[in-house]
């Protein structure tokens, strides 16, 4: 009997998001080994111990952690969550400078011990950090990309499911562009079941999904993180699940369509920034970007989102 290939997930940062990724990855049985790296050795040791005490209740796995980058050696996937904590009222883009510096400092050691890993950047502002990491690392865009608007798209689907009375799994809609204030919903290509979203007829007891409703839903998606941060200080559970979903798509070579963030080569006006569009994600990382049908308004919004990111990149000399 041939033993299944062992897989290893390394997570950089044992804060609220990093530990949420570790926790959800262990529960879903995504990798045989989950490794946590953090500069705070006492914190990472305690997190590993706490998670280890629950290993009886999940698919077979090992959880390890250290403040030495060697703990990430041989990883198949590296999820980068280390960065400054977002404060109430603070935009994602305002976090950029310190996080870019941290990324530049940590990446070389990671590349030395895990040169063949697929790198998934989660730290905010994720699009700027991803662009910087591509520059610093020299990795191809399929091997290093950002979590992008995978979480935002999940928020959109949740809100649409609440509004229409249909399960989130049957809502197929994406947020594109920046993971932040300039992001846009792709209404033109969205469907509920097999029905185009713009042609959806409300179920009994539910309001019509008209332009005003769509505008309200878009507003709530954009401001969701601010509301959560105001109440509990950080978003962690949903982004932990979103990052785990990306890792699962990679390790299981699922060829799953996910709106991850990378350089949109071949798209006019978008080829010098990292932003999100639906793409095929599998064992080689981020593959082909889909040629999604866009309305004129959506195309304009995507270009405006790209300009927002381009302005921020130039501010930091990227």
Automatic annotation (TrEMBL):
Its EC number is 1.1.1.27. Keywords: Allosteric enzyme, Cytoplasm, NAD, Oxidoreductase, Phosphoprotein. Pfam families: Ldh_1_C (PF02866), Ldh_1_N (PF00056). The modification Phosphotyrosine is found at residue 226. NAD(+) binds at residues 13-18, 38, 43, 83-84, 122-124, 147. GO terms for biological process: glycolytic process; lactate metabolic process. Catalyzes the conversion of lactate to pyruvate. This is L-lactate dehydrogenase. It comes from Gordonia amarae NBRC 15530. The keyword Magnesium does not apply. InterPro entries: L-lactate/malate_DH, L-lactate_DH, L-lactate_DH_AS, Lactate/malate_DH_C, Lactate/malate_DH_N, Lactate_DH/Glyco_Ohase_4_C, NAD(P)-bd_dom_sf. Allosterically activated by fructose 1,6-bisphosphate (FBP). Pathway: Fermentation; pyruvate fermentation to lactate; (S)-lactate from pyruvate: step 1/1. Substrate binds at residues 86, 92, 124-127, 152-155, 235. Beta-D-fructose 1,6-bisphosphate binds at residues 157, 172. It catalyses: (S)-lactate + NAD(+) = pyruvate + NADH + H(+). It is found in: Cytoplasm. The active site is at residue 179. GO terms for cellular component: cytoplasm. GO terms for molecular function: L-lactate dehydrogenase (NAD+) activity. Homotetramer. The keyword Oxidoreductase applies. Residues 149-311 form the Lactate/malate dehydrogenase C-terminal domain.
């Amino acid at each position: 009997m041939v033993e299944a290939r062992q897989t290893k997930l390394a997570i950089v940062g044992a804060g609220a998001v990093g530990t949420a990724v570790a926790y959800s990855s262990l529960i879903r049985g995504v990798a045989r080994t989950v490794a946590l790296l953090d500069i705070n050795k006492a914190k990472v040791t305690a997190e590993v111990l706490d998670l280890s005490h629950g290993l009886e209740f999940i698919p077979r796995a090992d959880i390890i952690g250290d403040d030495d980058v060697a703990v990430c050696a041989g990883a198949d996937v590296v999820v980068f969550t280390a960065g400054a904590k977002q404060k109430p009222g603070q935009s994602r883009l305002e976090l950029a400078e310190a996080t870019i510096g941290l990324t530049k400092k940590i990446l070389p050691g990671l590349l030395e011990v895990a040169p063949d890993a697929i790198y998934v950047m989660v730290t905010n502002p994720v699009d700027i950090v991803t662009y910087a990491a591509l520059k610093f690392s020299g990795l191809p865009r399929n091997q290093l990309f950002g979590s992008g608007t995978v979480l935002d798209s999940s928020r959109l689907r949740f809100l649409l499911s609440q509004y229409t009375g249909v399960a989130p799994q049957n809502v197929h809609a994406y947020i594109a562009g920046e993971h932040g204030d300039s992001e846009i919903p792709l209404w033109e290509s969205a469907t509920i079941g097999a029905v185009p979203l713009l042609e959806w007829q409300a179920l009994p007891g539910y309001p019509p999904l008209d332009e005003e409703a769509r505008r309200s839903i878009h507003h709530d998606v954009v401001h969701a993180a601010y509301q959560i941060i105001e109440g509990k200080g950080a978003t962690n559970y949903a982004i932990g699940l979103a990052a785990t979903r990306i890792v699962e798509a990679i390790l299981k070579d699922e060829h799953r369509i996910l709106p991850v963030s990378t350089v949109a080569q071949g798209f006019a006006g978008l080829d010098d920034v990292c932003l999100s569009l639906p793409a095929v994600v599998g064992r080689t990382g981020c593959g082909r970007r889909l040629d999604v049908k866009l309305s004129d308004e959506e195309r304009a919004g995507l270009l405006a989102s790209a300009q927002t990111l381009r302005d921020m990149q130039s501010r930091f000399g990227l």
